[in-house]
């Protein structure tokens, strides 16, 4: 039940139980005051944050992801890295790409942006 910290990984917390060593990474809660100075939580350092490409007041912490112009973007220690977002496969022969949508969809897709012109009578 003894708590140890390996020299090779000073941020890991390890416990020895019945001769078995089990280790865990620290949990980093960047909302806790002082966490930005914790060397084990570099993602909490404000210098590691990234600003949104257009909405400059929106700030992402290192490791956070968002969608921008049909790309998946990630903040990696102050740098924004983006790549084409993956679209789910479509089950129809003629998927359509609606204006403002990133992925082609089937006309009967409930997630399609455009409301369908068909109405269903109930009763």
From TrEMBL:
GO terms for cellular component: extracellular space. Gene3D superfamilies: 6.20.200.20. PROSITE patterns: VWFC_1, VWFC_2. InterPro entries: PKC-binding_NELL (IPR051586), VWF_dom (IPR001007). Pfam families: VWC. One of its GO terms (molecular function) is heparin binding. It comes from the Eukaryota. Keywords: Glycoprotein. It comes from Graphocephala atropunctata. Residues 48-107 form the VWFC domain. This is VWFC domain-containing protein.
């Amino acid at each position: 039940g003894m708590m140890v910290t390996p020299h090779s990984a000073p941020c890991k917390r390890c416990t020895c139980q019945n001769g078995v060593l089990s280790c865990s990474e620290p949990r980093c809660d960047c909302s806790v005051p002082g966490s930005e100075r914790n060397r084990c939580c570099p993602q909490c350092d404000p210098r590691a944050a990234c600003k949104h490409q257009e909405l400059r007041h929106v700030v992402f912490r290192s490791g956070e992801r968002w969608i921008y112009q049909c790309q998946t973007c990630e903040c990696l220690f102050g740098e924004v890295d983006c790549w084409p977002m993956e679209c789910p496969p479509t089950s129809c022969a003629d998927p359509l790409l609606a204006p403002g949508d990133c992925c082609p969809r089937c006309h009967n897709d409930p997630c399609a942006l455009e409301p369908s012109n068909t109405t269903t009578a109930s009763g």
